[in-house]
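@channel anyone free to eyeball this complex?
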Amino acid sequence: MTDAIATDVTVNGRPVVLAGSTATTLADALRAQLYLTGVKISCDQGVCGACTVLVDGAPTAACMTFLFTLGGCSIETIESLSTGGRPHPVQQAFIDESAFQCGFCTPGMVMLVKALFEAHPDPDDATVRRWLSSNVCRCTGYAVIFRAVDRLRRTRSAVTDGAP
Amino acid sequence: MTGGAQEQTGDRTDAVDKVLAGAMFVSDVAVPGMLHGKVLRSPHPHARLVKVDASRARAMPGVSAVATHADLVGMERTTGWRIRDWPILAFDRVRYAGDVVAAVAAVDEATAYAALETIEVEYEVLPFAASIADALAPDAPEIFDPARATGAPRYGPGARGVSAPERNVCYRYVFEKGNVAEAFARCDHVFEDTFTFSRAQHFHLEPHVSVAEWRSNRLIVWSGAQSPFLLRDELATIFHIDQAQVRIHVPYVGGAFGAKNPCRMEALAALLARLAGRPVRICLTFDESFLTVAQHGAILTVKTGVRRDGTLVARESRIQLDCGAYSDAGPHVCEKAGFRMPGVYRWEALSTVCDAVMTNTVPGGPYRGFGGPQASWAVESQLDMIARRIGIDPYAMRVKNMLALREPYVPGESGIDSDLQAGLDLVCSRLDYDGRERGTGRGMGLAVGMKDGGGQNKPAQARLKATPDGQIFLHCGSIELGQGATSALCEIVARVLRMPRRSVVYAEIDTDVTPYDNGTRSSSSGTVMGTAVERAARTLRDTVLSFAAQTLGWDKDALDLDAWHVTRGSERVAIRDLINRTFGRTGFDFEAKGEFSMPQDFQAPHNAQSMFWECGWAGAEVAVDRETGEVQILRLIVSGDCGVALNPAAAHGQEESNALASLGQALFEHLIYRDGVLVTSGPLTYRVLAATDVPAGFEMIPQEQGYGPGPFGAKGAGEGSLLVVAAAIANAIDDAVGARVTALPLSPERVLAAIASSAGLQPSS
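replying in thread with the prediction:
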């Protein structure tokens, strides 16, 4: 399998050239070439959402996205959210509500929720549930994650301003 | 990546690691020179293995090692927990579709997969038995070799085990109290009903993954093992080396629920690593986890004798567990499913037989609840059925028969440490059970469940070391699987020493250094390990005060320790100052250890009393559509009692999440086999709970009744709510439309069939 294709992307604000074959997925490239282990590979079939990253702002299953199709795209992973170790407001809400257990779905879930609030600054319950239903959490049963989202709804200006 | 994150009292110790994603999971472990392993699996549910030709794979560029049964030289060929019947690589037969036949280690996964495709396997297909009924039929193929059966362990009064009692049954557990036949004769009614419990899959998001490396003559393994010391000792046994030659590291684990206990792919990774002379990582795909281990399904036939006033008198239970192709945890789950058939009730006589039946399907292994959900499904369903048949309200019948606080579960066992009626009243009041609307397709159902907690044969040990500046390291073997174990245990240390929780660090699990532990299971971390940790913390406090007393020449009894200062009245000296005075400016470790185990008690049925009792309560309100059979969960109230919550967020999260996991299994989640092959084989076809499935009316009421034996009145929590959701919903359906579903899941088809078959019968009272 040759790694003959170079793809120019921006990852977490930095321009970078990633190498791969036609079969290289975004998830594999981010983990293997940039050591972004926050990108989790679970089902590897685009079903569970654990690998969710933002591609040009849109929540995307990195395990099902071929690297070579992303020339010129901007990719955000969980590692971009905290600055100097200070959590992003979405992350702080997850911390405050202990909205996790094993933590394997957490990076994907956090990126999904970030995108949710960027698309819907004041989402209603139905919208929240519909968005969250795209990611599987086997540990929590989602109740704590709903509480983290509720906390964000109460303080939504902090999210959209991006101020921690 | 920890600087700046605000720690508040409720924060878990693993919050920053997981939410800022700096956590290293097993799947993130990479070792220099590491190869990638993949395995070849049988497509047949049952076949004789005639020939395996891996010559083309061995010759493929990029392939460093290929293993078939011919390579199982100088080592054990099988593994297992109580019975060593599971081949590491199939050598005579394959016994389920998914059984491992060969393994390859290559430079990358793609090459390994390509190599697998060149391996030629000749099978002689055999008849298979993929269900309990088929496996017990007179002409069933023999799946289990009775020669492998070990003797049954010795139990205390009431309990006994039979090894390989009949064909395709690897183990039988029996529990008896009094004389059931005589007691039935004294009853006004005797009812017999049969229930079916589905098989579920753990569905942990991080797959089974491990890395094995041989360094000099030591085997080093990174694994998501829930019981690293059992794994260490098993690998030593398998490879004919000493325990001290094996070292297990356990980083963060992305979910387990029992699936990563005991040995899974580690022995194969180690074998490939030895053959290749390089480290090997085997990371199963998500679908392969479905072919590795699953929950035990069950058929439970329960015969219960009652008096007309609703008093429970005697119960005879016959349970058959679907154990899959290899015994694994079968004998253990047999013990527990059988032992839990009394439910939360008082009995004059009991007779329980539980068989582990082998079938040509994926092996059954530990799964949260461990036989409790199976037993409770039958117990709490039948309780309601009997109540309705004899015209007594299901709430009243439960209260009439439930054990009282401190009443022994069965002779020789410990007393119940929750007030069961108080918990039920809490749920009923929240649900407004007495005021419920009935007869319009809406109804309510209750369930109360309990399981013995803390495990058996589980000595817990913990060690602490503390620096002069008050940094405290906690070494103990509880694995952080997501349940919040590390937070609770660090909290205990912090409280005893009156230090901020962030001063306590939970040391990584490394079997070279960590004190021995039998495994993270049975909800034991908070209470069993918690007691050992509390003792270690108190000993550490005492050690520091002794040192201070000696150094200062002060009377030790007048001293206290607060925020790593010694105090005597209003005088206050930093421990750091004491070290400087004694040794100069240097580091130093204060050390202490603590131990705890439930004493052996041969008057108890399982040779030790249960340390605590995990209780769960549920009340469900449903609306049933008589035309489609769809069940809408209007309200689901669940509750558990953790005694005292050491970390409220973690304790409550456990109860909540286990209740919701049970909801999934109650309504739709189950494994389906067709012609011996798993049809619901991965995340697309096996439906698990999604965010949109959580009922708006779901609520978890935490209870801290405070009767627990653990630190500060705590006891294990989390598994109680696994026991009650399915039955509460089935009972609510019966209440709503007078139809009884006795098999899981409670699908619309089953509900419709139950409605149809109940037409013309007496409506529920």
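from a first look: The CA atoms of residues 480 and 719 of chain B lie 16 Å apart.
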